[in-house]
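Our working data are protein records whose layout never changes between entries. Getting from the letters to the tokens is the skill we practise here. To make this concrete, we reproduce a full record directly below:
***
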Amino acid sequence: MHVIALSEVTATMTALVGGKAAGLGELIRHGEQVPDGFCVTTEAHRLGVIPTAEVVAAYERLGAGPVAVRSSATAEDLPDASFAGQQDTVLDVTGTVELIAAIEKCWDSLHAYRATAYREARGIDHQTVRMAVVVQRMVAPAVAGVLFTANPLTGRRDEMAVDAAPGLGTTVVDGAAAVHHYVLDDVARADAGCLTSAQLARLRATGERLQAHFGCPQDVEWAIDADDVLWLLQSRPITSLFPAPP
């Protein structure tokens, strides 16, 4: 199988679709709002040939508009190795030529220095890792960011933390924009910044659902569009969390 719809992916398919796609498939099955998309599987990567006809057909089923092309390696989004930012994502890809080039870029990023150094530091055998690629309909966010269902700065499990900025969530992750930081305890309240109290309450409720479903604190990428729809772009275990304070 070389191309599979995200709606058909299950959490047990990491070897075929990689960690990110498996997580997205699980979010969809849990009833969360996830941008439509498909996955170019690790089997295609193993063969070293992009299945162009299948990719084009899947892209056209998405509407052939702008898409996000995202790496999804088999050693990714693990409880002790998130690989956050170690492999490539290409945003606002339009047209089949750009799409094929973006898939190739994601494949190549598996062997980038930052990714190989990350694997070596964690004792992961390079020869066992395969790359899948997720292609999703592009969300145009009014605001986006990251939700931590436990506070990563203090280790407190009874607090959630949100980092947010107007526009794309990549500005939060790479520090390219001023970030608004919120700590959510019993009350989700916005005194300032780019999020309303109602949006923070929805993020808190989402975090509670995801932590209960996955059974551990989660690091969640999200975006809210101009229609105030909350989209989930990723959910993975928090890999660096201090012990809970006494």
Observations:
- The chain is about 30% helix and 25% strand.
- Residues 141-237 form a domain with the D-amino Acid Aminotransferase; Chain A, domain 1 fold (CATH 3.30.470.20).
- Helices lie at 14-29, 42-47, 52-61, 96-109, 113-121, 170-173, 197-214.
- The beta strands are 3-5, 37-40, 67-73, 89-93, 131-137, 141-148, 160-166, 180-184, 218-225, 230-237.
